[in-house]
Structures are given as structure tokens and as C-alpha cells.
Write a structure and sequence with these properties.
By secondary structure, the protein is of the alpha+beta class. It has one domain. It has 2 helices and 5 strands. The strands form 2 sheets. A 3-stranded antiparallel sheet has the order 3-4-5. Helix 1 runs antiparallel to helix 2. The radius of gyration is 28 Å and the shape is rod-shaped.
């Protein structure tokens, strides 16, 4: 028959089970912070790639199907609006207020486009897409939220 002393359970002392719980909780906190940081990094890369892709796609389609007059959401072509709606489904929180479309020359100087006119051939369509990005991880030494932005230029044919 097995002899037990006072304070000992079947698998050792009661204090050893408490010690394992404390060690687990101490190790769990840094692991969760690291896991959240990795998730934020992945979300950040996805958002950055999505914003860059949206700028490229909008510049490409707007160079062919231009705005009538100075570009605003009211003067976007149906094709530009369709591409924007597609990109909006891919990038969480993308809004038309974060998209600017303008006509520029080779030196990136703005070209004035009259109402009813379009950007002249040889100039460029410049599209800037900006999106706010909110981190999930606490205690990271970066401004939260911050803006992810991308600019694309496309020559007008």
C-alpha cells in the first residue's frame, strides 16, 4: 500500500499544480501579444497591397474611360465606378472620399480640365487611394490608427 504524507495528492503536491498554472499564464501573455502582432502584420500587408492594386486599377480604367470635366465621384465613368465598387469589396472600409483622380503632365503638375472635356492625350491620370488602418495589437509603438496610401499614374492614350 502506498503511503502519502499530508498535503500530497495522487500526482504530487498541490502546490506543483498551482505552479504550472502560474507558469502557463506567464507564458501565455507574450504568446498572445506575438500572435496579435503577426495578425496585424498580415492585415497591414493585405491592406497595403489592396490599396496599391486599387490605385493601379482605377488609374488604368480612368485613363481609357475618363471623367467628364474635373474628376469627382459625380463625374466618374460607369467603368471607373464599377472598378471602384469591385475594389471596395476587396478592401474593408474603402470609401470614395479616400480616392482622388486628377489629370497631370509629365512633371506631375496639375492640368486644368474644363467641364465636359477630358484629360488630353499624352498627359497622365493620377490616382491616389488612402485608407485608414487600425491595429488590433495593444502596446505596439506605432500611431494607431494610421493611413495607408498609394499613388498610380497612367498615360492617357
Amino acid at each position: 500500500m502506498e503511503t502519502r504524507t499530508a498535503g500530497q495528492g495522487k500526482h504530487g503536491s498541490e502546490s506543483q499544480r498551482g505552479q504550472a498554472l502560474v507558469e502557463f499564464s506567464i507564458a501565455l501573455i507574450p504568446f498572445l501579444f506575438l500572435l496579435m502582432a503577426v495578425l496585424d502584420l498580415g492585415r497591414g500587408i493585405y491592406t497595403n497591397n489592396g490599396v496599391a492594386q486599387a490605385a493601379r486599377e482605377l488609374a488604368r480604367v480612368t485613363s481609357v474611360h475618363q471623367c467628364t470635366g474635373p474628376c469627382s465621384t459625380a463625374t466618374w465613368s460607369a467603368e471607373t465606378l464599377a472598378v471602384f465598387n469591385t475594389q471596395k469589396n476587396l478592401i474593408p472600409g474603402l470609401a470614395s472620399t479616400g480616392v482622388t483622380i486628377s489629370c497631370v503632365d509629365i512633371q506631375d503638375a496639375p492640368v486644368t480640365v474644363a467641364a465636359g472635356e477630358s484629360c488630353p492625350p499624352g498627359d497622365f491620370i493620377k490616382v491616389t487611394v488612402s485608407q485608414s488602418f487600425q491595429l488590433v495589437s495593444p502596446l505596439l509603438p506605432v500611431p494607431n490608427p494610421f493611413t495607408v496610401s498609394s499613388t498610380a499614374h497612367q498615360a492617357v492614350p
